[in-house]
Please model this.
Amino acid sequence: MSKVLQKIFRVAAIVAIFGTIAYVAQKHEQQVAGAAQDPVAVAEKRQTVEISGPIFGTFFGITVAGDYPGGEAELMHDAMEVLNRINAEISAFDPNSELSRFNRLLSTDPFPVSEDTALMIAESFRAGRELQGVMDITVGPLVNLWGFGRDRKPEGYVPSDEEIAATRAQVGLDKLHLEYGYGGSFLRKDLPAMRIDLATVGEGFAADALAKMLDAAGIGNYLVHVAGAMRTRGRNPSGLPWKVAIEQPVDVIGAAGDIIDIQNRAVSTAGTYRNYFEKDGRRYSHAIDPRSGKPVEHNTVSVTVIGDSALFTDAMDTGLLVLGADEALRYANERGLAIYCIVKEPEGFRARWSRAFRQYLAGAKGKPEEK
Model:
């Protein structure tokens, strides 16, 4: 699959996922007896404010069930003010962003960073320690080496073991340090050429920031998504709980699978089924295991995480995906974490989830729990 097609599929999948959410919610509402007779539900259904647009090389969207002061124009203005601030801090494409300037810094001196950036890096460190180092914001050189990053590689390029070993020497959270001192937070690297990428957690952080903005404005009913990271609060336009469909790894982009009610919490998903290449009958995923320097080889194709913040779920989902369903579910069950895995098996795809996830499955009564 060419890189152009991969990018098209990723963008289409993001749009399709959000469209699927709305579709599934609508169908669920139609199936709830008497819902249309609820005067509160009817009133809210008639009033919805929705916006969407590009950000961070992906898309965001907000649906407010009810009114927003100033309507769509003011909601877009307020949302872009939040998103542009974060983009100026962590963009890998803006040469003037805080992160880009740190990456260009060929020095081991402390570099001042914003509170936002410090929070994202601190959460990345926590997830990295929790997940045996498989969540690593310094893994970019390995991603580039395999042709999934910004550096162009021939179609189907597989690096040598020597190239992988040399590149792995540039990677590792142990070579990056977050320090707090007089005047703020500082980031320091042991290797002057080291670079970091906060895309793994930036979308979740942005979803949280938009939710915080809506909370501050007194909005009690909304759904926010930044790429695959989502936050909900209150009720949807029909006065019912928000329902989210987990995308299925099939040929139809955005195909809906199990429906979940995340109950005013956050959810995000990491998957391998849209970004990969094949060579000599073998599939190479964009999910790189920092421990080996190679794409993961297990059959887990996606992991969905529910938690209190989208920053937390976004920091966890990629690492859990790299671990694979068996290790990820063991970890989740030991800690009461709600995760949902999709695994490719000879007869097709199978969903497996942790014990804590079952409460979020819509219509899960009587549904056997996968372990």
